[in-house]
Amino acid sequence: MQTKRMSRREFLLLAGAASGAVVLAACGQPTTQPTAAPTAKPGDTKVEPTAAPPAAEKVKIEFLGEPGGTEWREEEKAKFEGENSNIEWIQVEQAEGVSRLEQLLSLVAAGTPPDCARVESDVYRTFCKDKLLLSLDNYIASDAEMSKPDYWIQPQEKDRCSYEGQWYGIGACWVAPHFYYNRSLFEELGVEPPSNDPDEAWDWEKFLDVARELTVDANGKHPNDSGFDVDRVERWGVYWPTWWIPLHAAVQSNGVDWVDPETQQIVLDKPEAMEALQRIADLTLVHHVAPTAASFDALGMGEAEFLETKKVALYNTGSWSVNWLWEIEGGLGTGVLPKMTRPATDMQAHLITIVKDTKHPDEAWKLIRFLSLPWFQERYCKNALWLPSQTALMTDTAIANWCTPPEHPEGYDLIVTEYTAKYGHYLTMPVGYAKANETALTPVFDQIWIGDAKVADVLPAAVEEANRIMKEEQAR
Amino acid sequence: MSANTQRLKLPLLRTEKGRRTITGYLFILPFILGFLIWFLLPAAVAVWLTFYDWNMIRDPIFIGLENFKEIFRDKLFLQSLKVTAYYTLVSVPVSLVLSFLVAMLLNSKVRGISVFRTIFYIPSIVPAVANAVLWNFVFNTEFGLINMVLRALGLPKVMWLQKPEWAMPALILMSLWGLGGGVVIYLAGLQGIPETLYEAAEIDGAGRWAKLRYVTVPLISPVMFFNLIMGIIGSFQVFTAGFLITAGGPQNATLFYVLYTYRTGIQYFDMGYAAVLAWILFFIILGLTLFVFKYVGRLVHYETI
After folding, report:
1. What is the residue extent of each domain of chain B?
2. Which of A301, A348, B65, B178 could pair with A305 as two cysteines, CB 3.0-4.6 Å apart?
3. Cβ contact A270:A248 at 8 Å
């Protein structure tokens, strides 16, 4: 019998062809063409009606990222699906070992994006520019509740959501940095803690005096005492992290912006901004009332441990931490940050969005709308993870309902109504900000925080470079 | 078997040799498919991407050689190369020598040696994140183990992970903690050297040093060469330490090449330029490996024992 050998080349070709076919099949576009919002503006997305599904078939709406928390997920899902019997809310869990951003980009690149996604503020505008997201303007305009001018706390919500005049997302909530302290420590020392009322915010000198009084080394000496040993500090007066949220609060409290909302340029080279940043650096380098933030962050200890062990007297972190700090031994106290020229804090939070290529924009909107209602937001305000972004939760009655003990310390309502809402500032991150920040600003900040350079000597050039990078990215 | 069935069979299946060939290929098919799908195809796509601006959101835009020109303007490209070269030049030789010395010790015939071997090997299987948390503590400026010791000795604290001049030595020190993998390979090599050669050397009057110099080192040199090649390749692919511990800082002092490539692709949404960076890395590693094979390979002593 005559036999014919398959050559290696033939075999490899066959295997390559087979695997190529598998890959091509996997990478193929979905057979159904996506439609867009029925009322989107020309030039943005095509206006086509959404195909109505058969009566018995539920429309599956995928949401990537955590819109709130996991503890009430089933209840939330049941309520939403009960109110929208034709929609099934599919929560896409974050894959192990990848970031949410990586997962979203991979799904988009693969042609299988989720219908809705949680998007962080640093990439939101980049996604808007590249038309990944669906404009929500027409949905909001035609919604009886959300079209009201006072539905959200303004102008912060508009600052956060609008890109070139349109909204492509809605903020999930607000969070804002403020001080935390262990009440028992201040009682022991007889020191007056910071107030929750921004009208009573300490000025910078008063704050430094208190921080010096609270800072103590192993010999019981304070930073102004002779022989104070900065290498053996037993308790730091303050911890002011050096990432953008607490820094933005400092810059705003000196009366200026981080990014100019009009020009969309980084303006940290303004003298007031540089002064504010230098003051933060000097807490560690000159006044010795704060530890090196990077080494504190790297330690992996939580805020609760620092406050309970009384290693830090005043801890500056976001409002979300009330969610777990309220239980600390000794009792939790909160207070507004000190003012340089005015009381100020930062306001941030992720946005919830609809991916433009969703096949079911109307149903996706229903989910986004559900997640933007007071019913949904209030539960996370009540458990002290969020601050409200909706005015319905800012009335006296509403606050009395959610801003309650034991989670919320006494007087915390002032942080909500007076401090955050009136003195909070949103930091707009323009297209290309992430790259500009990491490549131009971060290395310079690294120098500043350890005292290798003064802010005024190195920041102006870095800001110029950062703005150049953003301009390049915006032109891509 | 009917004639029809016989006709349906591939000609190759009609002989024993043919059947064995097919069986052999079937066994290696998972690897071949994996290689084609997960390596060759993405690599080919990466070549294509080098000519495009693609941010994973919108369609790729053809930009010709712009991504290649960017190499000459990009300061961070040079910085990441410098950082990686520094790491390679220091960590690879130190790791090679140290793991050889440890393997020599662990090759001793002492009671409980297997316990020591286990202890030295365990760090190399500690998950990367756990490793990062641990070393973050060890190097912590305020509360770290090393600074505690320095303080006890009356020495000033060192800002290990905040000062650019200390960050890389810290990461190299950390990498040495995981030299257990190399040690095991050395140990296997050492245990393959026949006792008779040492006995013969002793009869010829060789002392400890002479036995090491003229018996152990020549016979272990293929293992050393293997560890050298793998060490160079591995050092150019370091990512985790820079990503988890220092985030490329301070002042880009630990911006490893692969970390920069990752940032470019994922965080800066520039997959085209990231593809260029990836291909440059491929050619750097290829060039170095060929160089080492040519100039170091000739020093390796191969002997059939």
Report:
1. 3-49, 71-126+178-299
2. A301
3. no
The whole-angstrom separation of Cα B247 and Cα A294 is: 11
* pLDDT of A34 over the 50 cut: no
Interchain proximity B140–A435, CB inside 8 Å: no
Answer whether B129 touches A (CB < 8 Å). Answer: no
Which chain A residues contact residue B25 at CB under 8 A? 11
**Domains along chain A with CATH numbers:** 59-172+349-393 (3.40.190.10), 177-347+427-475 (3.40.190.10)
**What amino acid occupies position B277?**
L
pTM value is 0.84
Residue A159: its H or E element: helix A156-161
Residues of A in contact with B263 (CB under 8 A): 438
Residues in chain A within 8 Å Cβ distance of B157: 231
Structure ipTM:
0.81
| Cβ <8 Å between B21 and A5 | yes
Residue B6: which pLDDT band, with cuts at 50, 70 and 90?
A: low
> If 0-12 CB within 10 Å is exposed, 13-18 middle and 19+ buried, where does residue A474 land?
middle
Q: How far apart are CA A366 and CA A140, in angstroms?
A: 11
pLDDT band at B109 (very low <50, low <70, confident <90, very high): confident
SS3 letters across chain B: CCHHHHHHCCHHHHCHHHHHHHHHHHHHHHHHHHHHHHHHHHHHHHHHHCCEECCCCCCCEECCCHHHHHHHHCHHHHHHHHHHHHHHHHHHHHHHHHHHHHHHHHCCCCCCHHHHHHHHHHHHHCCHHHHHHHHHHHCCCCCCHHHHHHHHCCCCCCCCCCCHHHHHHHHHHHHHCCCHHHHHHHHHHHHCCCHHHHHHHHHCCCCHHHHHHHHHHHHHHHHHHHHHHHHHHHHHCCCHHHHHHHCCCCCCCCCCHHHHHHHHHHHCCCHHHHHHHHHHHHHHHHHHHHHHHHHCHHHCCCCCC
Is B151's Cβ below 8 Å from some Cβ in A?
yes
Question: Least CB-CB distance to A294: which of B10, B56, B161?
Answer: B161
Average pLDDT over chain A reads 88
Whole-angstrom distance, CA of residue B178 vs CA of residue B94: 13
Q: Do A23 and B37 touch (CB under 8 A)?
A: yes
DSSP state of A351: E
- Here the tokens at position A167 are 């909204």
- Do residues B184 and B114 lie in contact, with contact meaning Cβ atoms separated by under 8 Å? no
Domain B71-126+178-299, CATH? 1.10.3720.10
Sort out which chain A residues have CB atoms less than 8 A from B251's CB and list them.
Answer: 443, 446-447
Q: State whether residue B130 sits within 8 Å of chain A by CB.
A: no
Peptide bond into A223 cis (omega under 30): no
Q: Using the 8-state DSSP alphabet, how is residue A231 labeled?
A: G
Find the residue in B nearest to A436 (Cα).
B268
**Contact flag B136-A299 (C-beta cutoff 8 Å):** yes
Question: Residue A450 is nearest to which of B58, B136, B159, comparing CB atoms?
Answer: B159
Residue A24 has pLDDT above 50, yes or no: no
Please check whether residue A136 is in contact with residue A169, taking contact to mean a CB–CB distance below 8 angstroms. Answer: yes
Interface contact A298-B161, CB threshold 8 A: yes
Long-range contacts of range B148-157, CB-CB < 8 Å, 24 or more positions apart?
Answer: B151/A231, B151/A232, B156/A231, B157/A231
pLDDT tens by residue, B199-240: 999 999 988 899 999 999 999 999 999 999 999 999 999 998
Instruction: Tell me which residue of A97, A215, A203, A156 sits closest to A349, measured CA to CA.
Output: A156
pLDDT in tens, A47-88: 344 444 555 689 999 999 888 888 899 999 999 999 999 999
Question: How many CB atoms are located within 10 Å of the residue B199 CB?
Answer: 10
User: Are the beta carbons of A443 and B137 separated by less than 8 Å?
Assistant: no
